[in-house]
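This protein record is not my work; I was only asked to verify it. Where you disagree with what is written, explain briefly why. This is what I was given:
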Amino acid sequence: MNIVENNKKEQILLHTILTLLALICVLPFLLMVISSFTNEGTLMRNGYSFFPEQWSLESYRYIIQRGSTIFRGYLITIGVTVIGTTLNLLMTTLFAYPLSRKELPGRNIIAFFAFFTMLFNGGLVPSYIMWTQYFHIKNTIWALIVPSLLMNAFYVIMMRSYFTSNIPDALVEAARIDGAGEYTILFKVVMPLSGPMLATLALMVGLGYWNDWLNGLYYLTDSSLFSIQNILNRMIQDIQFLQSAAGATADFGVAEIPSVGIRMAIAVIGILPILCIYPFFQKFFVKGIVVGGVKG
């Protein structure tokens, strides 16, 4: 009985701790959503609150007025996320699989070069010169896909660890004995067994592409190519400019634009699609992180 009672006490304690941790994660997001529906005057007067005195849809009404721009930004972001994530997974897999094979000549040297890029890089200015003057990606859709996000050494190491720990050498050798080439082994034997890791990387890379706004800031001046993050960021800058100008000219109509609440509304709009997708990837994400990060 003592053992059973102790187990129950431990379970209650663990559940209490996990509940508190979950609340710590959820409450800020809930506050953000509530603030986006709070009247601007109430926010300015009382600050952020879970129980606002007055509700308002003015922030979302202001965003909806730019519906065509928002819709185009969503389409661009979805396209960039899908294409970029697919290319990233393909390149990461093609890089990681050879590194996982012990018979690859010089694999330690190649792995060192990959690891080296995690510690040092050329910096922003050389990268900008390279991408714009040699690869000519400025004001093209590739500016949102290629720089910084198309290849990541950390993901390569995770994938290599997964291949090394979870793909038996005997299975690869059996495929070779049956006459399969390296590409056949990779795409028909290895990758079907790597679903959790591929889903994990897809989620991580996809989040990177969806939330990225720096590439658009650095390499795009054509507003028709802006992603949703760049559009929302530009919207905030425009509101700040209008309000500063209104303060100088005493234009009270412009000054009433919901600058505080709209930031919360913009954050909600930016994160909403990810919240809808994440539950479907969660189990793969946890399994892939554990297997790819702990083993090997």
Observations:
- The CA atoms of residues 99 and 105 lie 10 Å apart.
- Confidence is low (pLDDT under 50) at residues 250-255, 292-296.
- The two ends are 41 Å apart (CA to CA).
- DSSP finds 14 helices and no strands in the chain.
